[in-house]
Write a structure and sequence with these properties.
By secondary structure, this protein is of the alpha+beta class. The chain is built from four helices and four strands, in the order αββααββα.
């Protein structure tokens, strides 16, 4: 049973990392930096952005070396904590375990970018008219969905001890 639990983590997180890294590689290869392809006019574009900072460009202006060290450390701690929470999640909380696996995979996906490139590739650009949500990627999406699942459990169900 325990082995099965870690296979589920590997499959969910692995699919997130695979989808994330493939889409980022395609963006790097086929879409020039700061260029866009309209998918749904007035709402959604694919736009090649390179984010040296964190969420919403946090710490983007910090020195590259210090920023990289901070993000590598924070990402490593986050991955460790999420793995710990996943490990402690009982089998009866399968939905919560999937949420943690999504967060885990997303964190690994963005960590790979930071180690490989020193930046994170973002390309999903959602907007209404001139009002844009900051560009994001598959890893960010998985983290967000995982956090919503965790929040759902936090608000509406008793969390495991």
């Amino acid at each position: 049973m325990l082995k099965n639990k870690y296979i589920k983590l590997a499959v969910v997180a692995g699919l997130v990392v695979l989808a994330d890294q493939i889409t980022k590689a395609l963006i790097l290869k086929y879409l020039p930096y700061h260029q866009s392809i309209t998918v749904i006019a007035g709402f959604f574009d694919l736009t090649h952005i390179q984010n040296p900072g964190g969420a919403f460009g946090l710490m983007a202006k910090m020195s590259a070396t210090l920023r990289t060290l901070v993000f590598l450390f924070a990402s490593s701690v986050a991955v460790g904590l999420i793995f710990y929470f996943y490990r402690k999640t009982p089998p009866s909380y399968a939905f919560l375990a999937v949420g943690f696996a999504l967060i885990f995979g997303g964190a690994i996906g963005n960590l790979i970018d930071r180690v490989r490139l020193g930046i994170v590739i973002d390309f999903l650009d959602v907007y209404v008219g001139k009002y844009h949500w900051p560009a994001f990627n598959i890893a960010d999406s998985a983290i967000t969905v995982g956090i919503f699942i965790f929040g759902f459990h936090l608000l509406f169900k008793k969390l495991p001890e």
